[in-house]
Design goal:
The chain has about 775 residues and is an alpha+beta fold. It has 22 helices and 27 strands. The N and C termini lie far apart (about 125 Å).
Length: about 775
């Protein structure tokens, strides 16, 4: 039943239309119902009298009080009494009410209700006219009595309807501004607010914020126009939880042309909405799972012949559900020609005999893309007759490609394990062999590699070697670092061999080290060759030392008489000689100088080859060095009609660091060669500083306009005892040691030497030397 403290229940609008006054009292005789006729008679609205004792409001309670008391104790269904009295308003209960008197004769009927217990219903009929006009017939009175009975019955029926409505629906009534004026128990239960917290508050207090503002704007626009609104609303309970209700909002009454109040009848649909959300989530998850696994579905209805595909099945076929409507014939036509007979037979057997299938077939999509699919099917039968066939459809192209790649890798691994000559083996953490290749099996005297599985090195090698191998493997397992070493395999009753072994940690899919992987290559022949080469090298070094000693001895032995020849020939030139004698002596002196130069070159080259030289790095002025050498070679250049030039690049530092004696020796040789091999033109000495990788280097070049060097002879330069060709040797002379000595000297000083030359277009010989960083470099003057 509705609570007594509210003004309008769903039945009040009908109670207000009754032709009698109606008052409902609670167990303490306080007003809980007060219809519109009572309001007109007394001048008091229900909001004023609600919850007040009736005796404080109603006049002549000296007669009505006993009547009420009798109704509570009398087992009769109702108690009647006629009251004639003036209306006396003893207390002004409302600020706008003016006390006054009114004459009225009333007939009151009091009835005790079973539900709620202790409540009374009082119906009051205005019988003033009947009392004044006694001439009215009893029929009229009976009609009034009947009207009263109908009113009472209508009220009881309305109370029953209200009770039934309260048992089913969540009910609330609001005024035109949305202020709550009535709620039933179910509204309080679901919202978790008490009536005291709800009555007088705006309905927005349970707004969940789930719906947009436009949603409620449309709702209020509908009910404000007098129309009924139906929809589903999400509200928020007092503890913050959300609940859903199916709502019907009905406008009631009129006030200034608009609804005077709104009654809202709701049904709790929270469980249904949660189930719908769960189903939607499951559908999304199912769809996402299908998409991730690339699995679609299909269903064929045997009665209608219709074929249905899920969205993923369309995607696998490169089709759109908006433009394509599948049929059995067109669906089968997408399979590759060799797959069509298989899927056709499976489909027909599924319909005819209910046989399920699970096939992996090739398919050509609508865009011409070849793929592999897994097609499954299952029949649903009633009384032995297939009514529908359904199944899954999955793109397994990636898996097929992986399987093919894995098979290919397995084939390559097997080929490698069969044919590679190196010994390949896998061991567990205890050093037991778990897989070996054919070469490893053969070296152990086994025909089948499987014979070695489970064996250890202790089963084949000497204890010392097996122990060392085991310790190496344990180190690899513990450190996770590979190990490479040369080792001698020592066998029992078997010839020893040398191998180059690499051992690597073996990991499982989880990244855990589960053993080792090893490769050993037989290097016995290499070790024997290496031993032979070491011996040969030692012998060669011994021969080189003997050669150097011989050359040094011979050079000194030859130099002594040669010095005598040169000395006496020089003395002869200072005597009186005729023309022929002077010519002979000059040739003798020139030949002696050439021979001495050759001996000196041979001796120096021998010393460079046989010993390690260390050069003192000193500071020198590159400009001064070049000018001095130019002055020394100026007579020879002038004799051949050549211009000897100096080109110093702007910004070249003045001071450089190197063994200036050796720099002078190399540069002097390059200048001599340039003058010797240049018939006309010029020889230019070029000095500059170049930078490479942030480091400064001295660069000196000698540029000539001479005969040049053929391309096919470039590789012979800088080799000892070699010149460009035999004709050059005969024409120009020389041993070919000068460039070899120069190259060796430059390299020993950490530099580089090279050349650029074309036949008939001259040559450029250059060398560079590394330089330490200079704090404040002085620049060479170009004059």
């Amino acid at each position: 039943m509705p609570d007594a403290s509210v003004n309008f229940s769903p039945a009040n609008s009908l109670l207000d239309a009754l032709p009698c006054g109606l008052v409902q009292l609670d167990a303490e005789d306080r007003v809980v119902q007060w219809n519109e006729l009572m309001q007109r008679w007394t001048g008091f609205a229900f909001e004023v009298v609600r919850g007040r004792a009736l005796i404080a409001i109603y006049p002549n309670t000296e007669r009505l009080g006993p009547l009420i008391a009798a109704a509570r104790v009398t087992p009769q269904p109702q108690v009647r009494a006629q009251l004639f009295h003036p209306w006396l308003i003893p207390v002004p209960l409302h600020a706008d009410h003016i006390s006054g008197f009114s004459e009225m004769q009333q007939e009151c009927h009091v009835r005790l209700l079973n539900d709620p217990p202790g409540h009374l219903v009082i119906t009051i009929l205005d019988v003033t006219a009947a009392a004044v006009a006694e001439q009215r017939s009893r029929a009229q009175y009976a009609e009034l009595s009947a009207a009263r009975d109908r009113a009472e019955n209508a009220f009881q029926e309305l109370v029953g309807h209200e009770f039934a409505l309260d048992q089913h629906a969540i009910v609330a009534v609001t005024d035109p501004r949305g202020t709550i004026t009535y709620v039933n128990d179910k509204f309080c239960d679901i919202s978790q607010y008490s009536r005291a917290e709800l009555i007088g508050r705006n309905h927005r207090m349970i707004n969940s914020g789930h719906h947009p503002a436009a949603f409620f704007q449309d709702l209020w626009r509908t009910i404000s126009s007098g129309e009924v609104w139906r929809g589903e609303i999400c509200n928020r309970a007092k503890n913050g939880t959300l609940y859903w209700v199916a709502t019907t909002l009905v406008p009631l009454g009129k006030l200034d042309g608009k609804p005077a109040r709104y009654i809202a009848m709701r049904t709790d649909i929270t469980a249904r909405k949660e189930n719908e959300a769960l189903l939607a989530l499951q559908a999304r998850l199912f769809e996402q799972t299908q998409s991730s696994a690339q699995i679609g579905g299909w269903e064929y209805d045997c009665a209608s012949g219709s074929l249905l595909w899920t969205d993923q099945t369309y995607l696998i076929h490169d089709l759109s559900p908006l433009t394509h409507h599948p049929a059995v014939e067109t669906a089968i036509a997408y399979y590759a020609p060799e797959s069509i007979p298989l899927i056709t037979a499976a489909f027909n057997q599924g319909i005819a005999q209910g046989v399920p299938w699970d096939l992996e077939l090739e398919l050509i999509t609508a865009t011409g893309r070849p793929i592999w699919v897994r097609a499954t099917g299952k029949s649903e039968q009633i009384e032995g007759r297939t009514i529908r066939v359904y199944g899954s459809f999955q793109d397994i192209t990636a898996r097929k490609q992986s399987e093919h790649a894995l098979a290919h890798e397995r084939f390559l691994m097997q080929a490698l394990m069969r044919h590679v000559p190196d010994y390949v083996y896998f061991k567990d953490r205890a050093g037991r062999l778990i897989k070996v290749n054919q070469a490893k099996a053969r070296v152990h005297g086994a025909i089948d590699p499987a014979e070695l599985v489970g064996k250890t090195d202790f089963d084949y090698f000497t204890a010392a070697h097996a122990q060392q191998a085991f310790e190496d493997e344990q180190t690899v397992i513990k450190t996770g670092q590979s190990l490479t070493k040369e080792e001698k395999l020592t066998w029992t009753g078997h010839s020893n061999i040398w191998v180059s072994t690499t051992k690597i940690p073996l990991h499982n899919e989880a990244g855990e080290t589960v053993g080792t992987f090893g490769i050993s290559r037989d290097i016995t022949a290499l070790k024997e060759t290496e031993h032979i080469l070491i011996q040969a090298k030692a012998e060669a070094e011994l021969g080189n030392r003997a050669k150097a000693a011989f050359l040094s001895t011979m050079s000194h032995e030859i130099r002594t008489p040669m010095n005598a020849v040169l000395g006496f020939s020089t003395l002869l030139l200072d005597t009186n000689l005729d023309a022929d004698q002077r010519t002979y002596v000059e040739v003798l002196n020139k030949s002696g100088e050439d021979l001495l130069r050759i001996l000196n070159n041979i001796l120096e080259y021998s010393e460079l080859e046989s010993t390690e030289r260390h050069f003192a790095s000193t500071s020198f002025d590159a400009g001064v060095l070049v000018r001095e050498l130019a002055a020394e070679h100026e007579p020879a250049a002038r004799q051949r009609g050549l211009d000897l030039k100096i080109d110093i690049a702007p910004g070249t530092p003045r001071q450089f660091y190197a063994d200036d004696t050796r720099v002078r020796q190399v540069l002097s040789h390059l200048i001599s060669n340039a003058i010797k091999f240049t018939g006309s033109g010029s020889v230019t000495l070029q000095v500059s500083s170049v930078s490479r990788n942030g480091h400064s280097r001295l660069r000196i070049g000698v540029i000539d306009t001479g005969i040049g060097i053929p391309r096919d002879q470039h590789g012979h330069l800088f080799q000892h005892f070699r010149q460009v060709d035999a004709s050059a040797t005969r024409l120009y002379g020389g041993t070919g040691l000068g460039l070899a000595i120069s190259k060796r000297l430059i390299e020993l000083m950490g530099g580089q030497i090279g050349f650029i030359s074309e036949l008939g277009q001259g040559s450029t010989f250059w060398f560079t030397l590394p330089q330490p960083p200079a704090a404040v470099p002085q620049l060479i003057r170009s004059d």
